Amino acid sequence: MATDDRVELGLALLAHAEDERLPLPEAVDRLESVTNDPTVTRTILDEAELRGLVEREDGIIRPGSRRRVDFGSQVVHREGEFECRRCGAGLSTGHFVDLETDELGPFGPTCLRKVLGRE
């Protein structure tokens, strides 16, 4: 995945963060489902602030819109051999999130909730 694609996917993920306030380490943990490159992560965070998707202050991120991912229409389940993008566990059912710009996944059900801020 190209850097620009990872940035756009990370921005979409932050735009769908459901938290009122998100400590920076938790935001970085979620962004690791998009990239492990610290430069790309910083670019995502900087660009999210520039675009007004989040506010950052004292290590806290406040998402602007808190759009919720609709589990009925935006989460796709696929059967197969997958590895969770967050924890690395083997999966027979992968959960993928359609975030307008691209699809993010696969995740197991628990990691999916963590990445979306529902846990």
TrEMBL record:
Matching Pfam families: DUF5830
InterPro entries the UniProt entry points to: DUF5830
Name of the protein: DUF5830 family protein
